[in-house]
């Protein structure tokens, strides 16, 4: 099994490193290409045996499964470069939400899935969102999800809910880190605790909270209730958070969905034009 990666930016390189560290792939099983080739060369220096492709076509010609790890606006160019070489027996995995399965299936003859990763996969944790195309047989889906189980908890989602699922799973780490940063900044400003100590305490707290919510038998509601001693201190803080954060996440979700819609329309236009001009 040879795995090809087109795009070794933030997420492409995270996936490569996670697959190698988890033992899912040896470096020798990986071939990767990127517009700026130096990024792949650096990966090959870190993981000897990983093959540096000189073109996206080379990635496709050498791989059984190909991960498309470029941004939505870059899809058209990549698909134009590779489409003549993609085979029906190959797997193409797109990691971006605003490119729809139906567009990929109309442009490429291969088996297609959309798997949205998360930065949390870097530490072999968090979810990957799995949306499979029509050509994926039950055994193909099982095989692909087993592959992603090396680095994550694969969760099947409907394409209609890709955006909100991705907000929670993939944007979520940044949203949570923003919340934590505000907590730390306020701790430093109000009390004079050092940023390093506040960051250490907040980070350990986040790790423990994650464990409680995944394997510890708590959900967000029961966890708040358990920590809030009646008449105690936590309840005072929660009262402020409830007041101040009311409606904030609705606005966040509206903002991400507006941007998604914009990307979706742009990508749809590009990929549909491509389809028409190729007929
Ligand atoms: N970052 C995240 O946490 C997550 C990202 N995603 C999705 O992953 C996708 C990529 O995001 P991310 O990795 O953060 O973005 P980056 O910009 O870091 O990476 C994109 C990479 O694609 C390369 N590239 C662009 N055009 C081509 C081309 N024609 N041929 C080959 N390589 C090309 C770029 O090369 P160059 O070095 O020249 O710029 C760059 O390295 C996005 O669609 C995003 O939605 C999904 C889930 C989480
Ligand atoms: O910010 C982005 O567009 C991507 C999608 C999910 C996480 N990062």
From TrEMBL:
Catalytic activity: L-proline + NADP(+) = (S)-1-pyrroline-5-carboxylate + NADPH + 2 H(+); L-proline + NAD(+) = (S)-1-pyrroline-5-carboxylate + NADH + 2 H(+)
InterPro entries from the UniProt entry: 6-PGluconate_DH-like_C_sf, NAD(P)-bd_dom_sf, P5C_Rdtase_cat_N, P5CR-like_CS, P5CR_dimer, Pyrroline-COOH_reductase
SUPFAM superfamilies (alphabetical): 6-phosphogluconate dehydrogenase C-terminal domain-like, NAD(P)-binding Rossmann-fold domains
Keywords, sorted A to Z: Amino-acid biosynthesis, Cytoplasm, NADP, Oxidoreductase, Proline biosynthesis
Sections of the chain in a coiled coil: none
Alphabetized Gene3D superfamilies for the sequence: NAD(P)-binding Rossmann-like Domain (3.40.50.720), ProC C-terminal domain-like (1.10.3730.10)
EC numbers on record: 1.5.1.2
Residue ranges annotated for the Pyrroline-5-carboxylate reductase catalytic N-terminal domain, each copy included: 3-97
Pathway membership, UniProt: Amino-acid biosynthesis; L-proline biosynthesis; L-proline from L-glutamate 5-semialdehyde: step 1/1
Transmembrane intervals: none
Role, per record: Catalyzes the reduction of 1-pyrroline-5-carboxylate (PCA) to L-proline.
Family in the record: Belongs to the pyrroline-5-carboxylate reductase family.
Protein name per Swiss-Prot or TrEMBL: Pyrroline-5-carboxylate reductase
Gene: comER
């Amino acid at each position: 099994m040879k795995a090809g990666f087109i795009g070794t930016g933030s997420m492409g390189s995270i996936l490569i490193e996670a697959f190698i560290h988890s033992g899912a792939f040896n470096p020798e099983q990986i071939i990767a290409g990127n517009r700026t080739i130096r990024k792949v060369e650096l990966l090959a220096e870190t993981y000897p045996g990983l093959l540096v492709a000189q073109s996206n076509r080379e990635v496709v010609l050498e791989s059984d499964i190909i991960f498309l790890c470029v941004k939505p606006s870059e899809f058209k160019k990549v698909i134009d470069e590779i489409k003549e070489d993609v085979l029906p027996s190959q797997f193409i995995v797109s990691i971006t939400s605003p490119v729809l399965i139906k567009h990929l299936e109309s442009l490429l003859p291969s088996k297609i899935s959309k798997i949205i990763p998360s930065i949390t996969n870097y530490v072999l944790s968090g979810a990957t969102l799995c949306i499979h195309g029509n050509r994926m047989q039950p055994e193909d889906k099982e095989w692909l999800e087993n592959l992603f189980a090396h680095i994550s908890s694969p969760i099947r989602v409907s394409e209609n809910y890709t955006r909100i699922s991705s907000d929670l799973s993939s944007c979520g780490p940044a949203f949570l880190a923003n919340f934590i940063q505000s907590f730390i900044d306020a701790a430093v400003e109000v009390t004079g605790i050092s940023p390093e100590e506040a960051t250490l305490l907040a980070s350990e707290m986040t790790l423990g909270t994650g464990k409680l919510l995944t394997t510890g038998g708590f959900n967000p509601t029961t966890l708040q209730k358990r920590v809030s001693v009646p008449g105690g201190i936590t309840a005072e803080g929660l009262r402020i958070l409830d007041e101040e954060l009311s409606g904030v996440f609705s606005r966040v979700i509206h903002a991400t969905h507006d941007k998604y819609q914009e990307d979706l329309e742009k990508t749809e236009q590009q990929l549909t034009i491509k389809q028409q001009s190729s007929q």
